[in-house]
What we know:
The complex is a heterodimer of chains A (338) and B (621).
Chain A: H1 24-39, E1 46-50, E2 65-68, H2 74-84, E3 89-95, H3 96-102, H4 104-113, E4 118-123, H5 158-164, E5 169-174, H6 178-190, E6 195-200, H7 217-223, E7 224-227, E8 234-235, E9 241-246, E10 249-254, H8 277-284, E11 292-299, H9 305-319, H10 325-329, E12 334-337
Parallel strand pairs in A: 1-2, 1-3, 3-4, 4-6, 5-6, 7-11
Antiparallel strand pairs in A: 5-11, 8-9, 9-10
Helix pairs in contact in A: 1-6, 3-4
Chain B: E1 10-14, E2 16-24, H1 29-42, E3 46-52, E4 67-75, E5 85-90, H2 93-99, E6 103-112, H3 118-123, H4 131-135, E7 140-144, H5 146-153, H6 161-165, H7 168-179, H8 185-194, H9 199-218, E8 225-229, E9 237-243, H10 244-259, E10 263-267, H11 274-281, E11 288-292, H12 296-308, E12 312-317, H13 319-335, E13 339-345, H14 362-367, E14 377-378, H15 383-400, E15 403-409, H16 410-414, E16 416-420, E17 467-470, H17 485-500, E18 511-513, E19 519-524, H18 528-540, E20 546-550, E21 552-554, H19 560-564, E22 569-574, H20 579-587, E23 593-598, H21 607-619
Parallel strand pairs in B: 1-8, 2-5, 5-6, 6-7, 10-11, 10-12, 12-13, 13-15, 14-15, 19-20, 19-22, 22-23
Antiparallel strand pairs in B: 2-4, 3-4, 9-16, 14-21, 18-20
Amino acid sequence: METNQYxxxxxxxxxxxxxxxxxxxxxxxxxxxxxxxxxxxxxDQTILISGIGCSSRxxxxxxxYCFHTVHGRPIAVASGCKIANPKLNVWVVTGDGDCLAIGGxxxxxxxxxxxxxxxxxxxxxxxxxxxxQYSPTSLxxxxxxxxxxxxxxxxxxxxxxxxxxxxxxxxxCVATDGPASVDVLTSAAHHKGASVxxxxxxxxxxxxxxxxDIYTAEGRKRHALYLExxxxxxFGPNKEYGIVRKGFELRVVKVDGPEGWxxxxxxxxxxxxVDHTLQLKLALMEGPELPVALGVIxxxxxxxxxxxxxQQMKEVSARKxxxxxxxxxxTSDTWEIH
Amino acid sequence: xxxxxDRDVVVKTIQxxxxxxxxxxxxxxxxxxxxxxxxxxxxxxxxxTFPDYPAEIRAPQGTLGGVSGFKVHAGKDVLTPGDHCxxxxxxxxxxxxxxxxxxxxxxxxxIDVDTFTPAELKKAEYTTEDPFEELGIHNEVIAAPFTQMCxxxxxxxxxxxxxxxxxxxxxxxxxxxxxxxxxxxxAEEMLRQKFASKPQVAEANIRVLRDGYNYGHNVHASISxxxxxxxxxxxPGTYTEISGNRATAYGLIAAAEKAGLELxxxxxxxxxxxxxxxxxxxxxxxxxxxxxxxxxxxxxxxAIGASYAGDLGVTSTSGPGLALKSEALNLAVMxxxxxxxxxxxxxxxxxxxxxxxxxxxxLQALFGRNGESPVPVVSPATPADCFECAYMAAKVALEHxxxxxxxxxxxxxxxxxxxKLPDLSKYPPIAPHDVTPEMASxxxxxxxxxxxxxxxxxxxxxxxxxxxxxxxxxxxxTGAISYDPDNHERxxxxxxxxxxxxxxxxxxxxxxGAADAxxxxxxxxxxxxxxxxxxxxxxxxxxxxxxxHLQWINPLPxxxxxxLRRYKQIIVCELNCGQLAAYLRMRYQHLPEVRQVNRIxxxxxxxxxxxxxxxxxxxxx
Lengths: 338, 621
């Protein structure tokens, strides 16, 4: 990692966020600035593109090149930026409606192409800016203004969607969990290719408590599994629980407990495994039986779209006999009139 | 000329010639037509071509729905592909039936007589055994056994018969080259280039082409006349043949080079615009980046992103795609970023007539967005003018910091003309409206150039210019979000005025035709040639009429109103229900009588019909 020549303050434009008091956007805002400083790229070498929604207002509160675009399209705009100038660090701030409903197509295709973007997906399972309609991540039966009798549809699970779309990087953090968020965002930035960071975020106004006790440090101690590549999957107040595989299922066991499970039986996390089967299982873990996985779930190397475009341009350039407009004209089937 | 002088074939000199090649979608009519037009262009003729093909890739063989045509007009002062044809090449009964309306009593019909079997007649829904009598065709017919001749030409090859028959088109082309005195050398060279990787295929096609030519030579007793087209004296120079879509792509490449930027195209395949994507995708050695996007929205959004990051951002589409792009187009309006949006118009609404031409997206281009959203609109007149308009669209976009819509159409896009290679050094410079380092202390995102009201682009990566832009209304001074009523009005007005000021960069509206006319005919876009030909004919026939063609529709040339008010009557001719007419009436109050000539059949104007309708209006004043 580069030495830190920037501080979080270098990415602050001094404009305070206008989110509701207690909104997770404040926490993420602070973590993002710290991550940007940790990454070490200059503010003027950094682009932040957002869509529409509460979290997308982030573009007004970061000092860099920021572009607040239209609903659902930040990933497409960001892809254009990155392909035009791959040297820039390109971030996307988007929400569950912006990214997974109106912008779903751009999300899956950017992942499939592996454009080197850092996509921060703030998932509060609600449309906040339009004042409380269910979103594509709201749980079945969710009661909202647009579903007064409960929704009759199942939610997307962003991890499954991302891995299904061939994502090379997927991580998860909780908006109020500062240090872990900074780690994950920094690691996403260092990943070459499309990175998705799902940020679990409470909406105090329209969907309070949606993540239960995962949202508190105390709750995470008991019900969250912080994944680390190469480390056994242990969690619990004293790391006394671990994850083992039973057939195609994951199970929680107590290490050195009455059932006789030992540390060596516990699965070791492999974020770099190309086969994403186990990573998908981890991404899908949820309570009450299983802990929620946080941290970097998948991080594999693959050619990035933007680099491949540049590479192909270089190769074709070396092969083709024309390198300016005039030379192009001379490649046509031409004739002379005297 | 060859030895015909000592035989009993008469050689007539003609001014121009229209050949319609027509057959099944798989019969290679587009290739034969394209080659014939190039052979004419190489000899110095003006050319105008018009492919007319079905939306289906391969409709059932031999049916009316599968007929694909390619019309070539070559000769002196050619402005259109022609209303009718002098020669109809019909490779099967369906083609004859579909295109019979293109015949005049003097037209020659060339058929592949081997295809006029009871089974083929049935497929083409004939009810009798004599197709000519049934269709009432009494023209001179050359009934050539193209199928048999083709097979015997290729007898020594052991390729399957269906493959051999793919060369039937060359038999027809060879015969035409004999009748119209087009030497084969260039055609053979074209075949060698086209099939460079398959020399055997090239050789087989050349063989058939020569046999077709010799067939004419040998059986000339049944062909009474050969023709010589009077060559046109063109400006000396190097020429090529170019379609509207390729000219559009070239115009963008030229503009990017002139501006010192890389060209970025975000696009989603759509007829009839896709060839622009195909063309630009080839030119990576010129720094051209193309992305085939997941949808139309992504196409424009990627182009906006690329433009924001410092490229020349372009997206190409047709009418349905422009509808999908309208929200993002407004983002470019609001963020005031350079962007070129190409709409190659086709028949609408909805999926409409995907392969046919129409001019019905004008009001969509001008007004099809939410809010007050002024966007410059420019429309080319000819395939070659697509180059000029694409260049100018990019220049205006970059210098005035605005999206620009280029309204082409299927007729221009697929049609082609001979084109004198341009000298890029003679084109006006293009200076992207970017910040300079010394502006850093005073710059805000919406600070404007007082002369043009264009804001200054600060490309990410430029030290000292971190900022935020976006779709929300911004304060004119600080660039911060603003819901202030007066500021909103001020910004609306600035965006409108900025587009109006572009009229300083565009040519004045010029008028041709009779100087003392009371009537002005006005048109825009790809109907230019048809209207001009109609107006020229009316003036030649003794009536007085003037003609003005609009290349820029927003802004209109600054003298437009002044020109319009000079006449007692204005006749607006367009391939829609009257969109330019409505726009002119809206823009200028109390104009002289505005009349309309409209066609909306998916086809270009027919000059005869234009002459009749304009002449009728002339009688009414």
